[in-house]
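Hello Y.,

Per our agreement to keep a running log of every chain we model this quarter, I'm adding this entry. I've kept the format consistent with earlier entries: sequence first, then predicted structure.
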Amino acid sequence: MQAPNDKQQLEPMLGKIAELPGELGKVGELLADNGYFSEANVNACATAGIEPVIAMGREAHHSSLAARFADDPEPPKDPTPVEAMRHRLQTKDGKRRYALRKQTPEPVFGIIKSVLGFRQFLLRGLEKVRGEWKLVTMAWNMKRMFALTGAI
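Predicted structure for the entry above:
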């Protein structure tokens, strides 16, 4: 689906997740950056039985020592899905879980940009761009498989 921003991408992806074979297991949590945040998306995750961990805005990179070692805030009474997620993101466990997003998908894009040198599409048109992206991701996968086999 083409959309001007990421907010409109989440609900269709929840539909794709629901179509996955049961043998793959059940998705219990969705990690996403603040580009995906909206009340509708948080509610859609809750309806799908998936716990959202979606940033609600930009946060400072270096919090104070007092903030790092502060106790978790008290949970809200009878929270809406958005209030529950806001609280979850303020807890130590929620911060740890959200940080996983930075070490799982983000390095792949950094390597594709800096190591493979892919910074922009050379072709135009959706089908051509899809083909070009498939080549880029295939190159990434081959590089990764080569590294994992110990051949490097």
